[in-house]
């Protein structure tokens, strides 16, 4: 008799008709037994072999969305599933998540996929599962809508901001160790005393006083005036009546903006009469944070193009022209329909790596259209361009155009002269000019404001023109090479408290001014001082590596810790393996170039160093400490 049902079916999370099941999720923040990077690990199984389709059937459908995958070879459903999860995990945002592995284990396969944000990666896995089941049933799935949801989920994570992710990806490419400090909501680049901390383009070495000064647009404007730089005439007002008085004194057109603000919110340019001024004034008031007093800048509106000049560490690195959002008529569509069509373009996906945001509809847009005798229902002639805003606000759909190579030397000197007066790593200078290729001394040119935490996406991924690798300029300010971001790390698969203290004493004897962090299952130490031992082992390693005084770390990673938590850091300068298990051998996998690995098996010792292997046998009663203390002396 032939059974039509497999009584040994794997069915843990699977629904009654599912062909596949996924279960046993484990997220590792760093290297683990399955990948040498942060990963989401889970088990994959066929519930009953007769339910699934042939591999070719899945590849055919998936290949319509990802054509490049059709040319690859797959040995099993599990391998295909892992490959698709890895692909979807990039979220069409070029995320640097391309590592994956599979380990067959009887009735199921363990899959590991590189992960940055556990919640997003887990959602990707479930989405791919739904996709496979839909293909099995010959159903459709709302792929693009689901993908947008995954993009939004990543974007609201600690890693999803465009500037933060750009820096994170560049650090990964350069081999600079990076992790998020959840308590402070900061990103840490580098370990111990080599670290720098920051959020977006603001870092802990920046002067908070200088940063605060740039937000006081009135004082900052006066300072620039003292330096002899061109700033628009104007004044700060505290009421609508004062705004009308100042505008009359300096003459229309004027620009109106809140003293405290960002991203162009509440800014109105080219205000031409009292009625416009009234609306612009209250728009600026509305943009002021609740805890701030009403202070509005009314200044002469300068004709020209809107530019951002960017300096990193006092040096000019990039310039971008910013144009307001616009649409081009086709002779039959309304402005509202043209906006909708424009927003569907791939370049306006509105993800952390999109060159343009979606065009936002709001009161300011409708008022500006009204000034032009138009509304959202107006039909625009073929090839006619209509600008939708006075202000080139990129977050509302404006366009960025790289202008770095066209900047006149005098304008570069101006930007650098300004930047030299601020202890800030990154400084954005907003100017208005007819043409940046002309000197500010010989043309209409005005400095609008200074930004202490400038965004970098407009330079890294402009809508038009070449990319400027601003993240590289920023990180190279702190780290010439990845070694500049690392302190020495000594990893052990097993070490006692007594041996740990002996090792600390040996290092301090050679480097008496060092601060050494050490952790084993028996305790946590800073030099000889014992500290609190957290039950979560990697929390101890985390607190040591975020210590800004630390010169070196010693860490024990036993196989049960590696299996349960993985490692918090990557790469070691010295690895000592005392009769290691198969899992503990992963410590040898994650070593730096020119690192040393000491392996003991019984009384046999092998030392791996710079491609050479030295082997010998321990003498009678000779301790392993004698071997590795000698090797420690060679790595500093």
From TrEMBL:
<protein>
    <submittedName>
        <fullName>Cyanophycin synthetase</fullName>
    </submittedName>
</protein>
<dbReference type="InterPro" id="IPR013815">
    <property type="entry name" value="ATP_grasp_subdomain_1"/>
</dbReference>
<dbReference type="InterPro" id="IPR011761">
    <property type="entry name" value="ATP-grasp"/>
</dbReference>
<dbReference type="GO" id="GO:0005737">
    <property type="term" value="C:cytoplasm"/>
</dbReference>
<dbReference type="GO" id="GO:0005524">
    <property type="term" value="F:ATP binding"/>
</dbReference>
<keyword id="KW-0547">Nucleotide-binding</keyword>
<feature type="domain" description="ATP-grasp">
    <location>
        <begin position="221"/>
        <end position="479"/>
    </location>
</feature>
<dbReference type="GO" id="GO:0046872">
    <property type="term" value="F:metal ion binding"/>
</dbReference>
<dbReference type="Pfam" id="PF13549">
    <property type="entry name" value="ATP-grasp_5"/>
</dbReference>
<dbReference type="GO" id="GO:0009432">
    <property type="term" value="P:SOS response"/>
</dbReference>
<dbReference type="GO" id="GO:0018169">
    <property type="term" value="F:ribosomal S6-glutamic acid ligase activity"/>
</dbReference>
<keyword id="KW-0067">ATP-binding</keyword>
